[in-house]
Amino acid sequence: MSDIISSPRHIGIIMDGNRRWARSKGKDAVWGHKEGYKRFTETVKLLRSRKVKYLTVYAFSSENWKRSKDEINNIMKILSRGLKKDINLYNQEGIKFKVIGQCKDLSEDIQKLIKKTEKITESNSAGYLNVAISYGGRDELVRAFKKIVSLDTKESDIDEELVSKMLDTTQQPDPDLIIRCGGQQRLSNFLLWQSAYSELYFTDKYWPEFSEKDLDEALAWYKNVKRNYGK
Question: Is residue 138 within 8 Å of 161, Cβ to Cβ?
């Protein structure tokens, strides 16, 4: 039998298209990233109102470090301001905040802000927000395998459950739905292990223009999906 689930517990979003959207408006990339961050905070609130408990957003990939220094610096400034400003939002919504990825690649100031936000929100349980920063799915798997090796684990004890426990999203359900904006139809190294049975929703809308209506269309699409899980 197939399962019909009306609402996803966990949504992953690949927030793509900030720069292309800005260029289409005759603006620079920084403006696009700022508008993209506004869309992110709006979406967090929208998904809480729609009772989606887990949200993982792809904010900055491990490959994004290849961009220009100016663009990276501006993205980090936006991130820093957001971490300072949005603690109240997370507490108001009862959200536990977590960064997944290689935090060690970030500046000490941003690392401190991340730890502070995680600490202040650690007792929240109404919702869970994972922000993928300096993140890559392959890197996450390599780190998971290294943890397993460091524990001197017997070969017979290595299974899917153990690998899942070693991932950045440990103790969280895999995403039911992954939404990618920006017209591309690929995962781009996002939640490679966790997305094995995720439903994939692609839209041509750039992330800053992905409205409440667009979000509801994605959720309506998901409601009509029959999930077989290979049965």
Answer: no
Placement of tokens 């103790």 in the chain: 171
Active site residue 64: yes
pLDDT digits (tens, 9 = 90+) for 28-77: 999 999 999 999 999 999 999 999 999 999 999 999 999 999 999 999 99
Position 142 confidence tier, pLDDT thresholds 50, 70, 90 = very high
Contact (Cβ atoms closer than 8 angstroms) between residue 13 and residue 52 = no
Q: Is residue 88 exposed (0-12), middle (13-18) or buried (19+ Cβ within 10 Å)?
A: exposed
Choose the catalytic residue: 3, 18, 28, 64: 64
CATH of the domain at 87: 3.40.1180.10
**Counting Cβ atoms within 10 Å, is residue 149 exposed (0-12), middle (13-18) or buried (19+)?**
exposed
The helix/strand count (H/E) of the chain reads as 8, 8
**pLDDT tens digit sequence for 80-113:** 999 999 999 999 999 999 999 999 999 999 999 9
Q: For the chain, how many structural domains are there in total?
A: 1
**DSSP character at residue 175:** P
CB atoms under 10 Å from CB of 136, counted, come to 20
CB atoms within 10 A of CB 222: 19
Catalytic annotation, pick one of 16, 168, 174, 176? 16
- Clarify whether 16 is annotated catalytic: yes
Asked whether 73 and 88 are in contact (CB, 8 A), the reply is: no
Task: Compute the distance between CA of residue 177 and CA of residue 127 in angstroms, rounded to an integer.
Answer: 16
Please give the residue range of the domain that contains residue 199: 3-227
